Amino acid sequence: MDTSTDIQLAASKVTLGDDDLLRAQGHESVMNRSFSMLSSLGLAFSITNAWVGALSNFGQNLQYGGSQVALLSILIACCCQWVITLGLSEIASAFPSSGGQYHFVYIVAPEKIKRFAAFVTGWMSILGWWIASCSGAALVSTSIVGLVHFLHPNFTILQWHEYLVYLATLIITIIPVVSCPRYIPRLVSWSLYLTLSGFIIWIIVILAMHKHTNSAKEIFSPGQGTSGWSSGTAWLLGIINSMYCFTCTDGVIHIAEEMPSPGKRLPQIMNMTMLISLVTAFPLMTVMMVTMEDMQRVLSSKMPAIELLYQATGSTPVTVALAVILTVIYASCLPPQWTTCGRLLWAFARDRGTPYADFFAHVDRSLEFPLRTTITSTIFAALYGLIWLASTTAFNSIITSAITLINSTMTSPQLLCQNILFDWAESLDTKNWDKLDSLFTRSITVDYGGVVGFENVSTPKGFIESLAHPASLGKDAISTQHFVGATKWEEVSEKKWVVTYQIRVAHWHSKKGADVRNANGYGLNTMEFELTEDGWKIVHLTVRPPNDGG
Looking at residue 401, what is its pLDDT? Predict the structure, then answer.
């Protein structure tokens, strides 16, 4: 057999494995896996794109607490978002699905609430993504209007002017998505090249042309804020504002069914997105704060980034050129967002989470992508933009809440993953043997380190009988409290996880009219979970012999 045939067979095996995993989650593969590692990263980073996000909202942070808040809140927000992303990427590697968070919640949530929890999470995710995409279109509009105001400061810009530019932005950026969807992977790859090139150009030009340098003392001096908030509140608001720069790291999850080996690639891409975000946003903001001459002029500008750029370069042509590059980058970030919004709504409709589910779950056979849900997302953006005409404050406030919605959906499945471990400990303490039995697979292995009564256990029934024996926890006079401490989760495969956890167990032995006798033990235990048809179950338990605390 020749080498090319071997490669084709290997590729087919990967594809079959991906489709089998998707089928195990209750879905069939209906779209081509056309997103490579590079194009997937291009989509992910084009959406998050921290350095252009920082340029869009650092003016508000200057108002909260000056240059120190604008700079350091970037680091703090990045750390917060990265913690969220780490947990979500671990779950995504086990359940790669375009549905994302609502799908994860359905799998890991308790049976009684899983449908409701998934439904709420799904709509939170959809609304969050829709509104966040509106903010992307608004950035293009604001940049264009800001550039006009920079060149013609006496021209009066009305809100309906901005709304018309906003509508034009929606139309122009949706055209490539609906007219040539097969080229979206190539388009988002070029978007990645463009944004990284733009970052390099911006930072080199500013460093080469700046005429003023602020000292560290000037940058970090207190009392720079003009918002009127206390120092603590101003910092908190600044960090929340900077979270916008790192949001939507779940974007690549929603094309999981269009990439090969998503279980392996999703965590890599999500964490690479955070890494690139950090090494672009923080250095650029540092350069901006070092070269800023007049903070009040920046704050009073229609587009603070353009004013600060002009202060650094002192050149109108250079400022205009870099502002145009920034605007083009903002616009290039929108097709990936429409792609993600369309996939998310389509996946939710496929799982019967929307009205007219059959209509929205349709995949256009000729274009090979969910056309109806993509257009619906754009229509929502056009209608939402009407709020701009009434109040830009309301428009921006709702966008801020959308970031909270998205991050809430990203953390909820991670919290639910702790349920099995919690239920295990609670079942032991309450002696609820039926509940404990429901946590295991049909066959299990238990290693109690030679503790008498637990040798050769291979079924949940045998394990529970050993626990419930009067010589063990089955005695009425014995009460326990299992304290689970820090945990470390490790993915062995797409269908198996291992958790190592600290545990301390307190035992009480009492009789009427007799003194209470206490015994404490602690150890480092290991539990293995396996994905079955009924969800995650415990398949192996290692309990190291506890140290008697007397």
Answer: 67
